[in-house]
Amino acid sequence: MPPDTARPVPFLRRSLAAGMSALALFCLTGAACTGQLGDETEPAEVDPLTGEPAVQDCSVTRTSPGVLRRLSRIEYQLTLQDLFQLDEPPVVDSIPEDTGQGGFRTIATLQNVSDQHLRAYLATAETLGQELMADEARRTSVLGCAPDADDCLERFVHRFGKLAYRRPLSAEEASDLVARASEVAQDRADAFRFVIEALLTSPSFLFRIEVGASGQETSPLTPLELASRLSFTLWGRSPSEDLLARAEAGELDSPEGLRAVAEEMVEDRRTELFFNAFFKQWLTFEQLRPPANPDPSWTPALLEDMIAESERVLGEHAFTPDTDFLDALTANHTYLTPELAKFYGLEASGDGMTRVEFPAGHHRANTGLLTHASLISAKNDGDLIAVRGQWIRAAFLCQKIYIPAGLLEQIEGELSGLSYVDVIKKRNTQEGCAGCHALIDPIGVGFAQYDKNGRYDGSIGIDEFGIAPRFEGAANESFDSLAALAAELRQSPDLAACVAEKLFIYTQGREPASEDRCAIDAAAEGFAQDGNRFRSFLTTIVQSPAFRLRRAPE
What we know:
- By secondary structure, this protein is mainly α.
- About 50% of the residues lie in helices and about 5% in strands.
- The protein folds into 2 domains: about 5-30 and about 65-210, no CATH class; about 215-410 and about 420-554, no CATH class.
- It has 23 helices and 8 strands.
- α5 crosses α6 (about 170-185), α9 (about 225-235) runs antiparallel to α10 and α16 packs across α19.
- The longest helix has 20 residues, at about 115-135.
- About 40% of the residues are buried.
- Keywords: Signal.
């Protein structure tokens, strides 16, 4: 019996149990901190003669090994929205949240499949099938034929199955599924529901399977595989019927054709929806926690307003034509509801979100994203100064600092009884601590006047912490305001490359390896040459020769 036509849950359970054993879970490991920053990319290959990192030859197309990718929760939702022609993505709260790493929930090696996943996938398919068959207008459109027509079930299996699997079903797969649906269904409508449940609980739907056009270790993608990768990269969902047809017609075969289609796609609203999730994961403001001891003016709606503020500013700079995306770091305006404006000590006229300009000398003037409460309040675990300083380096420069195993326990006794200010002073001078903290504390102290909730308190004196605000590696390392820090960060030569790296992780589902460096650097270069337009990042990513390749896992 062809695998994808067996009864959904038992087969899915057996197939995934076998398939998941091949997925290698990985974790980040880091060397002890010696005061040197490391980026998030795997180390480059080393020249055996000099011991120095080998220069990557970008004239040779390389790509790191791919991994079997399960649809992330957002990809699953958006794909179902298209398949069932829904106005909004369906609610999938019963499906477990994707495991995150570095803020991103798209890391393929962490996307396991549990019993809870299986039950939720089946329940979702059952619900969507029932709702479809009860909705006459949408049913006719999705089925593509009258359900009581003799050949409608078979036609639906081929048409819907191709959209679900991102490839045509074989004759054997289709005929077996039709036969089984006809055999077990209680009535005609139930036969369509059975098909929907079988297709949507199949590994061919739940996993993004890429085999390649040849049997070699590194192989070009087939046209339909390329269409699938393109659609998931730009829209976060399965390719449409139109995109599959264009791929079969050869429109994606040439770099020029792929570019033309990609440029059409990035102008579509679906790109904005998918990358709104990217912004939240990159800058880690997907979910905000209410304060432990809120003051009387606090309302739960403020959390939603904070997230909406950042979404609005990022979306404006990413998708407004001819707008420099990096200007989001130094913007002198934001969008506030009256309630959020009051939280900030400002005024906003009208209802809903309105644009607010900051007057000269205001603590938020020209600070862009850096003073958004959604971002500041999300970085409040533990030591605010260290956490926020490390976040700036990790989020915008792709630099991570690793704490040596056992170091905290080693120095815990030495710090016992010290005040917070004394702890900061000690860790910036003590051997074993100073190398790391000298890189993050002088940045984090610039945020010292913002409390855990992201509210400004001008009564706090930065000088009381014993370290001066400083951004090591910037052209002007010392800064006297967050506006100055934002300006230096905006001009950092590492910023564009870091954004390109974050986009790679989000869209490709893996941390980049040395083989991916050329593609990332090309994306950053194309971004800069096009005036830092966010859409140029996306089109350059898919134009990379490596985007067309699939390399087998080792």
